[in-house]
Automatic annotation (TrEMBL):
GO terms for molecular function: 6-phosphogluconolactonase activity. This is 6-phosphogluconolactonase. Keywords: Hydrolase. It comes from Halopseudomonas formosensis. The keyword tRNA processing does not apply. Belongs to the glucosamine/galactosamine-6-phosphate isomerase family. 6-phosphogluconolactonase subfamily. It catalyses: 6-phospho-D-glucono-1,5-lactone + H2O = 6-phospho-D-gluconate + H(+).
Length: 240
């Protein structure tokens, strides 16, 4: 069983019986960790992924009652499109947790200054923010995470913990939009790292990634190490 294997290697496995329960579990965990950071340091940072997976827990998180004015919120990755575009990860956050984003210090990745210029700006800002408190990853069915796709040129460098860059520009390829992505060095800085997955197909991808030796084939593999807590629901209500 994948959950046993992961636990044997020090990763956490939290299975919910429904997408709703999963959303409550994830939101409570994020809010709890942020609250702890606020109590310890007076502030906290949160990096969120996009895609279809986060919607329910983002809406739940919005209701958490946290003092968002003490939280910096950013994205792990973004399509290089304005927030009004339906594919924008910023747009997802603005729709699902508008109150939190209004109160928090919100740092969008897309600024419309050019792909490389926006990556450089985010890279610079991240230098002042690391280490992050809480970071949430998703995973595509091809094993990508953030905007780190299988066999991306320079992927080996982006996954290298010694990589200089914290945020990189990912040029368009095939039908894929240009993107911005945190590198492993930024992702690995987070004290609390969560992976949120739903549906049997994502579970099968996770099993393949665990068995895969080469993270260039399935980049999520590079992050399947402690500290990492995986929240899974077999109910893939929002599965795509
Ligand atoms: O492209 C992306 O995909 C992953 C997974 O998204 P999902 O729709 O399969 O949940 C996501 O984590 C990432 O932020 C997003 O840009």
């Amino acid at each position: 069983m994948i959950e046993q294997l992961l636990q044997d290697h020090g990763l956490g496995w939290y299975q919910a019986d429904s997408a709703r329960t999963q959303a409550v579990m994830v939101a409570e965990r994020i809010a709890g960790q942020l609250q702890q950071a606020i109590e310890e340091r007076g502030e906290a940072s949160l990096a969120l992924s996009g895609g279809r997976g986060p919607e329910l827990f983002l809406r739940q998180l919005e209701q958490s009652g946290l003092d968002w004015s003490k939280v910096t919120i950013m994205l792990v990755d973004e399509r290089w499109v304005p927030a009004e575009d339906e594919q924008s990860n910023a747009g997802l956050l603005l729709r699902c947790m508008p109150g939190a984003l209004q109160q928090a210090r919100w740092i969008p990745m897309y600024r419309g200054e050019g792909l490389q210029a926006d990556a450089d700006t985010m890279d610079r800002m991240l230098r002042a923010l690391l280490p992050l408190d809480v970071l949430v990853l998703g995973m595509g069915k091809d094993g990508h995470t953030a905007s780190l796709f299988p066999f991306l040129p320079e992927l080996a460098g982006y996954l290298d913990p010694a990589q200089e860059r914290l945020c990189v520009a990912v040029p368009p390829e095939g039908g894929r939009l240009p993107r911005l992505s945190m590198t492993a060095r930024a992702i690995d800085s987070a004290g609390t790292r969560l992976l949120v997955l739903a549906g049997e197909e994502k579970r099968r991808t996770l099993v393949s990634a665990w068995q895969e030796q080469d993270p260039l084939r399935m980049p999520i593999k590079a992050f399947l190490k402690p500290p990492m807590d995986i929240y899974y629901s077999p109910d893939g209500a929002l599965e795509n």
